[in-house]
Amino acid sequence: MEKKQIGFELSIYQDVSELSQSEQKLLHAAEQAQKNAYAPYSNFQVGAAVLLENGEIIIGSNQENASYPSGLCAERVAVFQAGARYPGVALKMLAVTASSRHHLVDSPAAPCGNCRQSIMEYEQNQKSPIVILLKAEKGPIYKCNSMADILPLAFNSSFLGDS
Ligand code: THU
User: Fold this and answer.
1) How many domains are contained in the chain?
2) Is 75 a residue of the active site?
3) From 31, 64, 75, 123, active-site residue
4) 3-state SS of 46-112?
5) What's the pTM value of the predicted model, to 2 decimals?
6) pLDDT at position 162, please?
7) What's the domain range around 97?
8) For residue 121, what is the domain's CATH number?
C-alpha cells in the first residue's frame, strides 16, 4: 500500500494593491459583471471575468431560474461564452467575485464542482494552466495557479476510450 499526499499552492493577498495591474483589472471586471447577476432566489451575486491570450476579457454573472437547476454559475457563463466567441483561444486567468444581499461575504467563494469540471476541460485542451483569482466583498484574495490544482483526480475524456 502506498499513500500519496496531494497539495497545491494557494497565494493569499491581504489587499488588491499586492496584485499585478492585469490581475487588478480582471478582478474589477468581475466585480462590474457581478452587478448584472440575476440572483433573485439565492440573493448571492457572483461575477466572473476571463482573460484570454489575445487580451480579450469575457465576463459573466450567475443567472438563476425559478426552476433552480436551470440556472448557471457566473464562471460557466463566462467560460462558455469565451469558448463560443473565441474557439481555440487559450484562457489565461479567471477572476471570480461574490457578494450577498443577506450578509457580508468576507472570504472568497471558490468555484463549485460543476464549474471546476467544466473549466478543467478547457485547461486540458489548451495544455496550459488557467490562473484563478478569488475575491469576496472583504477579506483576503486567493490565487490558485491552475484549475488542476483545485480539481485533483479529475475525470476527463481519456476515460471514455477512443469510441
Ligand atoms: N454560484 C456561482 O455563480 N458560482 C459559484 O462558484 C458558486 C455559486 C451561484 C449559483 C447560484 O446562482 C448562487 O451562486 C448560489 O449558489
Assistant:
1) 1
2) yes
3) 75
4) EEEEEEECCCCEEEEECECCCCHHHCECHHHHHHHHHHHHCCCCCEEEEEEEEEECCCCCCCCCCCC
5) 0.96
6) 75
7) 10-152
8) 3.40.140.10
